[in-house]
Design brief:
By secondary structure, the protein is mainly β. The protein has two domains: 85 residues, no CATH class; 65 residues. The chain contains two helices and eight strands. The strands form two sheets. A four-stranded antiparallel sheet has the order 1-2-3-4, with helices on one face. Strand 1 and strand 2 form a beta hairpin. The protein is flat, with a radius of gyration of 18 Å.
């Protein structure tokens, strides 16, 4: 007799940078906000069958501070500004090997999450003391595809 597994899975998709440049209340950096779409799918035996919920988030591309936006409002804001403007931002993680813990069950929290503004050359450290799983979750929350890990 087989076992049937069901549940939900959330997929994220980065839509682009839209709107005017505005200052983030959390990190006080001035950038265009990024829009990320979260789609929740119902799955059966790990096979996504149909989407049943979509939400949009207007997010600071540096610190990740976000606000949920209604679907119609997000689509209207994205249509008004036209094509998404590329801001030349790159996110990456640094693994500080010197801080790697010793021991059998030691948790490796020696990762840093960085964002680089390619146009100005500024590197911004978003968070430190992270585990690899937390960094991967931050990458997923932002809808990033191209992401590098660097050993330092």
């Amino acid at each position: 007799m087989g076992m049937i597994m069901y549940g939900t899975k959330v997929f994220t998709k980065f839509k682009g940078y839209f709107g005017e440049r505005e200052e983030c209340p959390c990190c006080h950096k001035t950038y265009k906000k990024s829009y990320v779409k979260y789609t929740t799918w119902f799955h059966l035996n790990e096979i996504p069958l149909f989407p049943f919920k979509s939400t949009y988030y207007k997010m600071c591309p540096i610190c990740g501070d976000s606000v949920e936006v209604k679907g119609k409002q997000a689509k209207a804001e994205m249509v008004v500004t036209g094509q998404p403007e590329t801001q030349k931002l790159e996110a990456y993680a640094k693994h500080i090997l010197a801080n790697k813990p010793k021991g059998f069950l030691a948790l490796d929290t020696s990762y840093e999450f960085w964002v680089k503004d390619v146009t100005t050359g500024e590197d911004i450290c978003v968070a430190t003391g992270l585990s690899k799983d937390v960094v991967k979750n931050m990458k997923k929350e932002r809808g990033l595809k191209n992401f590098n890990f660097f050993d330092v």
